[in-house]
Amino acid sequence: MTNQQYEVWAPHPRQVRVTVDGERHDMDPDPARAGWWVLDPAVARPEPGARYAFSLHDGTEWTKPLPDPRTRCQPDGVHGPSQVVGTDFDWTDGQWRGLHLKDQVLYELHVGTFTEDGTFDGVIAKLDYLAKLGINAIELMPVQPFPGTRNWGYDGVAWLAVHAPYGGPEGLKRLVDAAHARGIAVILDVVYNHFGPEGNYNGMFGPYTTQGHTGWGDVVNISGPGSDEVRAYILAAVGQWLREFHVDGLRLDAVHAYDDRRAYSLMEEIRAVADTVAGETNVPRTIIGETDQNDPRIVNDESRGGYGLSAQWLDDVHHSVHTLISGEQQGYYVDYGTIEILADTLRNAYRFRDTWSEYRARTHGRPLDLSHVAPWQMITFTTNHDQTGNRAVGDRPSASLSPKQLALRAAVILLSPFTPMLFMGEEFGARTPFPFFISHSDEELARMTREGRLHEFSRQGWNPTDVPDPAAPATFHAARLDWEFGQRGHKLYDAYSTLLAIRREHGFNRDDLRTLKVEHGDTWLTMAEDGHPVVLAANFSNARVEVPVGGELMYSYTSPRVGADATELDPWGFAVIRTTG
C-alpha cells in the first residue's frame, strides 16, 4: 500500500475488499498492473493511524479480514488489522558518514532480552556502555512482527513492518538516530528464505511461496511464476530499511536456503539496492550473507561470477577455536578439534575447500581467492545466537569454561584479521542462557515446535530431558541478561575492552590474509601479520608451554613469563607481545 491509495497484490482471489476503520469498500483490478487491486482515493485515502484489512473472495465465500502482506505496522499483532503509518521523523544524524565494514566491531543483540524493558529504548540506554567497550556496530536480531511477544524473530511474517512491543517503526528510528549520534552503525538481521508459521496469510493473496520446505517454513517464491512481485516486495523492504530508516546494513539469514535459479541472483539485486542508496547518501551500506556453504560466490564481485555481498558469516573459525578449548566433538564439531585445523582455517578462512567433511560425508566448499577477498569480509565470533541457542539448554560458553578460557577465545577472535562480532553479554561472561523461545497462540504449532526441537537435539546426542519448553514464559525470562556482574565479570570486560583497543590501535583489520603468519606446536599457536611487531601467542592446553616468541608483554589475562626469545604461557593463557629486533 502506498500513501496515495489502498492497494494490494492479490492474483489468487476473484474479488477483494478493504475495510478501513470499520467501513468496507470493494476494490477494483488495476488495469496497469496484473494481479493488483486498488481503491479509488476519492473513496478512502490512507491516513496515518487508520486501521485496515483485506477480505478475499475465492468465488464461493469471503475470508475473514486479513492483514496487508506489505503492512508497515501491526499494532495488535500478526493476526490483527494493519495500520497506516507516516514516514516523517525528526532525524538528527545529518553528520553521520557511516562506517566501512573493515572498521566495524559488531555486537549481536536480541532486543527482547538485551534489557529488562525489552524495547528499542532499552537498547538506547546501553549505547554509551557499548561505545565505551569498543563496539561501533550493533546487529539486531530480526525485528519484524512475530506471533506473541516472545520469539527470536525468525518467525516474522511482515517484512516491511517493525514488531510493535519493541517500539514499532518510530522506536527503531529513535534507536538508529541515537546510535549514529554515538558513532555506532546499525545492522538489521532480515529473513527472506521463509515466512513464520503463524500469521502468514500471504499465500491466500498470491504465490509468495512455492513447493518445498527449508526446514523452517515453505520456500519463498523468488524463481517461479509470480516471483517478480515477490522479489519486488523483498527489494522494497531492503530499500525501506536503508533509506527511510537510515539503517547501515543488513544481515541476510541463511542465503543458502534461497530457491534462487534465475540468471540474476536475488543477492545481486539486494546488493545493487544497497549500492544505489550508498551512492545517493554517501554513507556506506553493508550486506552480509549467512551461509555454511563455503562458497566464494557470496563475496566475489560480479566480474568473477559472484554476488558481490560485503561479507559473510564464517562459522569455521568459531568451530575451530570452540572444539580446541571445550573439547566438544559432537555433530558438526567432528570436523574440527586440532591445532593444525585452527591454523589452516586462520590462513584460509574456509575450513573446507573442496575437501572431505566427515560430518557431511562428502567433499565440501571451494577455496577463496585470497588475492581478491579481504579477511575483513569474513565475520567471526566466539559465539552467536545460533551457537548458543541451538544447544539443548541454550548454555553460553561461560557456563562451562573458565575465565581464562573465555579470554583466550576472545583473544584469538578479536586479534584475528577477520571482522569480529560479540554476542550480547559475552564480554562479561554472562551466565544467563539463551535458549530458543516462542509464544505461538496456536497450541498445535507450539507442540510441533517442541517436538521438532527435541528430535533435533536427540539426533545430535543431547539429552531430551535437558531441553526447556520453548513456549514456556520462564524459558524467555531466563534469557534476559543480568547486568549485575561481579569481579569476575569486570575482569573479563576489561579483557575484551583492552583487546579491542589493541585491535584498533595496531591495525588488525588487515586487507590481505596471505600476509598472516601462523605458527604452531602441539598445543600452542602464534599469529601475526608478516613484518608486524605485535604477535598473539596462545596456549590451548592445561599445561604450561614455551612458545618461541619473545619481546615486550603488551597484555595478558594471566601471568606469562616473557623473555627476549621465548615466552612461557600459563595453562589456557595467551600473551600479546611486541617483538624486538
Automatic annotation (TrEMBL):
UniProt-listed SMART domains: Aamy
Name of this protein: Malto-oligosyltrehalose trehalohydrolase
NCBIfam families according to UniProt: trehalose_TreZ
Organism: Corynebacterium stercoris
Metabolic or biological pathway, per its Swiss-Prot or TrEMBL entry: Glycan biosynthesis; trehalose biosynthesis
Primary localization class, coarse: cytoplasm
Keywords from the UniProt entry: Carbohydrate metabolism, Cytoplasm, Glycosidase, Hydrolase
Protein family (similarity comment): Belongs to the glycosyl hydrolase 13 family.
Catalysed transformations (reactions): hydrolysis of (1->4)-alpha-D-glucosidic linkage in 4-alpha-D-[(1->4)-alpha-D-glucanosyl]n trehalose to yield trehalose and (1->4)-alpha-D-glucan
Enzyme class, UniProt record, top EC level: hydrolase
UniProt EC number: 3.2.1.141
Keyword Hydrolase: yes
Domain Glycosyl hydrolase family 13 catalytic, chain residue ranges per copy: 108-503
Annotated localization: Cytoplasm
